[in-house]
């Protein structure tokens, strides 16, 4: 965690080691996307939780946004998430894996598919970006449910 005013790192927070360190050590930084176990992070709309992607294990990890940053739990994704964003209404979270998560119940409720039944995921957060299928990318103006 960092102090926005000073830019100083004030605390280091990570998911419990048993959830990722052994796999990370086995794979190595050069074998995973972006050379990191996860790089997506989002703050819940009520600012009580911090959601972080665990791209090497296909999970979202959730922490309390309070002193100590207690680990609250995990949500299994259907594929590796690279980023996560929470909808404007706070009801849904959208991961780049294509998974749509019910924030309150912490479970995947939807996985969009193309007209051929293939799963769709995204490489971009918001703005124009490709939705990826097993075929050619489909460019869209915006991604996510943005409830």
Descriptive overview:
- It is a single chain.
- With 147 residues, the chain is mainly beta.
- The protein has a domain at 17-108: Beta Barrel (Thrombin, subunit H), CATH 2.40.10.
- Helices cover 5% and strands 30% of the residues.
- It has 1 helix and 11 strands; from the N terminus they run H-E-E-E-E-E-E-E-E-E-E-E.
- It has one helix at 21-27, and strands at 41-43, 49-54, 59-64, 71-76, 84-86, 92-95, 100-102, 107-110, 121-122, 129-132, 138-140.
- The strands form 3 sheets. A 4-stranded antiparallel beta sheet has the order 1-2-3-4, with no helix packed on it. Strands 5-6-7-8 form a 4-stranded antiparallel beta sheet, with no helix packed on it. The chain has a 3-stranded antiparallel beta sheet with strand order 9-10-11, with no helix packed on it.
- Strand 3 (59-64) and strand 4 form a beta hairpin.
- The two termini are 28 Å apart.
- Mean pLDDT is 77; it is low at 124-147.
- Relative strand content: 25-35%
Alpha plus pi helix count? 1
Structural class, by secondary structure, is mainly beta
Rounded radius of gyration (Å) = 16 Å
Q: Looking across the biggest beta sheet, what order are the strands in?
A: 1-2-3-4
User: Could you list the spans in which at least 5 consecutive residues all have pLDDT below 50?
Assistant: 124-147
SSE series:
HEEEEEEEEEEE
Second CATH tier, the architecture of one domain: Beta Barrel
Question: Which CATH C-level class of one domain is it?
Answer: Mainly Beta
Helix content estimate: under 10%
Which descriptor suits the 3D outline? globular
| Total beta strands | 11
Major sheet attributes:
4 strands, antiparallel
Q: End-to-end span in angstroms? A: 28 Å
Rounded average pLDDT:
77
| CATH fold group of one domain | Thrombin, subunit H
């Amino acid at each position: 965690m960092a102090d926005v005013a000073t830019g100083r790192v004030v605390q280091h927070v990570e998911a419990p080691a048993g959830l990722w360190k052994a796999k990370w050590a086995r794979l190595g930084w050069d074998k995973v996307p972006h050379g990191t176990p996860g790089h997506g992070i989002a703050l819940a709309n009520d600012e009580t939780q911090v959601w972080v992607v665990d791209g090497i294990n296909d999970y979202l990890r959730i922490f309390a946004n309070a002193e100590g940053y207690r680990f609250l739990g995990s949500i299994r994704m259907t594929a590796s998430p690279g980023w996560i964003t929470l909808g404007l209404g706070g009801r849904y979270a959208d991961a780049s894996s294509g998974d749509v998560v019910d924030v309150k119940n912490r479970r995947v409720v939807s996985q969009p598919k193309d007209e051929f039944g293939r799963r769709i995921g995204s490489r971009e957060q918001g703005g124009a970006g490709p939705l990826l299928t097993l075929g050619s990318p489909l460019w869209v103006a915006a991604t996510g449910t943005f409830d």
